[in-house]
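Action item from last meeting closed. Structure (89 res):
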């Protein structure tokens, strides 16, 4: 599971070949003992949970980096190496 970004204690990952599980482009966010997945298209929470403040940070980051995330998604579903994406600052 490649880590593509880290900010404010949140680790953002994208799994290879993960289009089977959620069927749409998404990322996984981990913070302490929390795990959640978010849609790249609209930042919606798809599963799991994250504290509200951390979820909002992830959603803002998705909004800023949507184009890069979609490019990484295309690479991930083809099993190719992903590019890191700048953290939220």
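Sequence:
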């Amino acid at each position: 599971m490649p880590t593509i970004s880290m900010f404010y204690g949140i680790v953002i990952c994208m799994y290879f070949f993960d289009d089977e599980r959620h069927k749409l482009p998404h990322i996984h966010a981990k913070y302490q003992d929390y795990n959640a997945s978010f849609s790249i298209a609209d930042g919606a929470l798809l599963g799991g949970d994250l504290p509200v403040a951390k979820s909002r940070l992830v959603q803002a980051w998705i909004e800023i980096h949507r184009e890069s995330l979609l490019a990484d998604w295309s690479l991930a579903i083809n099993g190719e190496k992903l590019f890191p994406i700048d953290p939220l600052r």
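Note appended to the action item: The longest strand covers residues 26-31.
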